[in-house]
Amino acid sequence: MKLCLFLVLLTTCAYAQAPQPADPLSAGLKGGYTTIKNNLIKSAEKMPEEHYSFKPSPEMQSFAERLKHIADANVRTCASIAGEQKSVGAASKTSKSDIVAALKESFAYCDTVVDSLKDADAAKMVNTGRAQAPKLQALWGMVVHDNTIYGSLAVYMRLKGIVPPSSETR
Length: 170
What we know:
mainly alpha; Four Helix Bundle (Hemerythrin (Met), subunit A)
């Protein structure tokens, strides 16, 4: 019993002494952003090109269309936050290599916007293209949107017998 109590106290003290990030709000966003960025890029690379036109039902977008939407939406969001006009023109891409390149370019552009976020400016109002919103909210909105699209892409992949990146280690 005393040994158990000692171990609980020891781990509690070790956890309490763990260094906290300087900007915890920004660090949380950056972690979520990095996870979804990696899952989307890996999905785009993993899906064979012959399945890029796959639609689970006729009224749905194809796998490629979903990726192109994410690439264009990401850049639109990050450019509006940065006060810039930028596009990767993903909607016009047709080959897997061009779509993957546009997706990677969109994330490379957004990396600079996300990496620059500090808690001190998280509440700064920015134009999202639709309305004014705090910078942190706009970026979390992008992460949530990307996760929503990834969820549908995971289903597309499963329907083709492909394990989505987020399930590979399970």
